[in-house]
């Protein structure tokens, strides 16, 4: 029985791995040859330039090289083509790494998946895509992961707010779209959100709507509390909110001809009680909150193929950045979640630790340099202060010498006068 179970498990493993397909993979391990696989759009003449770089800090100088934005305040438009496929009946897994080492203030870090009939040379912001996925940061208010699906020609944004990473390190972003209409978003190989297409996007009309024929009955009382009919306002309740200040006196120099008739200033009336309201009691006729009855929405039709894209064939980077320096790497499109997990571990998983260490070492060196610079500035300031003090002492001594010389001269003149 154990042997049979082991064989079943083995065959299942082989079957899963045989079915696994990698549609697109890009790690930029062959230097500048990437330019033969990626095409820049010519829709605009001033798109930002890309360069191959591992950045200022990295875990591996070669493995961490990716496409980096290089010009501030520019749009970028670059794409790569692969053999077209359909995700019908299979999971679709889209994965990549992104590093905002420039302390990004406003810019995209997302990718787009296009149909194979995209004209890459004319790709631009309004080009119709299938999927838009990845981080987007702008100021303090926007730090989210976009998950946008195109359904019947319309782009639909996810209704949930998924927070992205906003530090300077490399992070792994994974989108899993399943044929059962469910999805999952992972950051750094950990699930951060999941659900269903029908619940988390407004692709379909709602299943239920309020019955247009139903109306709240005219005698429906939904007041839980009512005014006590036996409660009445006290006779001495009404008092003005402000009164003339009884302690105020007309100034002695008040001239009514010039200043007009004098009136005392107004003050808050200590006897003012505010607006009177009868006390509240339970409503004996209360029927509860009326709930509008719902009916099946005649415009709703279930669609079990919302997840499906028939002609996937291009991955594009179509974005805007105020401050450049973002690095994209380790692109993967597959139908196998385990394959994506392992690829993430073999790439980002291996270099994330050394990258963080290198960054911390650089920060430590920069901190020490700043401290040394501050120390030198302080020493220079102290030296300058000492020099000024020495100059002041020399000036004082010179003044004292001049004063003594003057006094000596005066004494000599006095003696000379005495002798005469």
UniProtKB/TrEMBL annotation:
Q: Which domain of life is it from?
A: Eukaryota
**UniProt feature, compositional bias: Basic and acidic residues:** 208-253, 353-380, 411-420
Gene Ontology MF term list? calcium ion binding; carbohydrate binding; unfolded protein binding
Localization annotation: Cell surface; Cytoplasmic vesicle, Secretory vesicle, Cortical granule; Endoplasmic reticulum lumen; Sarcoplasmic reticulum lumen
Chain residue ranges for the region called Disordered: 194-260, 343-420
Q: Which residues form the signal peptide?
A: 1-20
Bias category Acidic residues: which stretches?
Answer: 381-410
Disulfides per UniProt: 106-138
SUPFAM superfamilies recorded for this chain? Concanavalin A-like lectins/glucanases, P-domain of calnexin/calreticulin
The alphabetized UniProt keywords are:
Calcium, Chaperone, Disulfide bond, Endoplasmic reticulum, Lectin, Metal-binding, Repeat, Signal, Zinc
InterPro entries, sorted: Calret/calnex, Calret/calnex_CS, Calreticulin, Calreticulin/calnexin_P_dom_sf, ConA-like_dom_sf
State any GO BP term from the record: protein folding
Family statement drawn from the similarity comment of this UniProt entry = Belongs to the calreticulin family.
Its recorded name reads Calreticulin
- From which organism does this entry originate? Betta splendens (Siamese fighting fish)
Q: What gene does the UniProt entry assign to this protein?
A: calr3a
């Amino acid at each position: 029985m154990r042997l049979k179970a082991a064989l079943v498990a083995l065959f299942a493993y082989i079957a899963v791995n045989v079915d696994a397909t990698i549609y697109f993979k890009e790690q930029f391990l062959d230097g500048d040859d990437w330019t033969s696989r990626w095409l820049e759009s010519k829709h605009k003449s001033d798109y930002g330039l890309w360069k191959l770089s591992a950045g200022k800090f990295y875990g591996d100088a070669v493995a961490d090289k990716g496409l980096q934005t290089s010009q501030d305040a520019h749009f970028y438009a670059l794409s790569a083509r692969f053999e077209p496929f359909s995700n019908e009946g299979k999971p679709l897994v889209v994965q990549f790494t992104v590093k905002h080492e420039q302390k990004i203030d406003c810019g995209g870090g997302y990718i787009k998946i296009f149909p194979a009939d995209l004209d890459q040379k004319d790709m631009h912001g309004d080009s119709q895509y299938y999927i838009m996925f990845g981080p987007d940061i702008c100021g303090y208010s926007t730090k989210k992961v976009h998950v946008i699906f195109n359904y019947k020609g319309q782009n639909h944004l996810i209704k949930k707010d998924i927070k992205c990473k906003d530090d300077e390190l490399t992070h792994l972003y994974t989108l899993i779209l399943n044929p059962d209409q469910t999805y999952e978003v992972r950051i750094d190989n950990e699930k951060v959100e999941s659900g269903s297409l029908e619940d988390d996007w407004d692709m379909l009309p709602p299943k239920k709507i309020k019955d247009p024929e139903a109306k709240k009955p005219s005698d429906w009382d939904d007041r839980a509390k009512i005014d006590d009919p036996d409660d009445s306002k006290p006779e001495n309740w009404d008092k003005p909110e402000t009164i003339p200040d009884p302690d105020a006196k007309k100034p002695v120099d008040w001239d009514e001809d010039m200043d007009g008739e004098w009136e005392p200033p107004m003050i808050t009336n200590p006897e003012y009680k505010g607006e009177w309201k009868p006390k509240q009691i339970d409503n004996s006729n209360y029927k509860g909150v009326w709930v509008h009855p719902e009916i099946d929405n005649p415009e709703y039709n279930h669609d079990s193929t919302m997840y499906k894209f028939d002609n996937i064939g291009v991955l594009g980077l179509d974005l805007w950045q105020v401050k450049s320096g973002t690095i994209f790497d380790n692109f993967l499109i597959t139908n196998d979640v385990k394959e994506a997990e392992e690829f993430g571990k073999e790439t980002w998983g291996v270099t994330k630790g050394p990258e963080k260490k290198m960054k911390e070492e650089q920060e430590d060196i920069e901190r020490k340099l700043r401290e040394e610079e501050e120390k030198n500035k302080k020493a220079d300031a102290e030296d300058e202060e000492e020099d000024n003090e020495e100059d002041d002492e020399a000036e004082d001594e010179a003044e004292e010498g001049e004063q003594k010389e003057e006094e000596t001269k005066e004494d000599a003149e006095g003696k000379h006068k005495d002798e005469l």
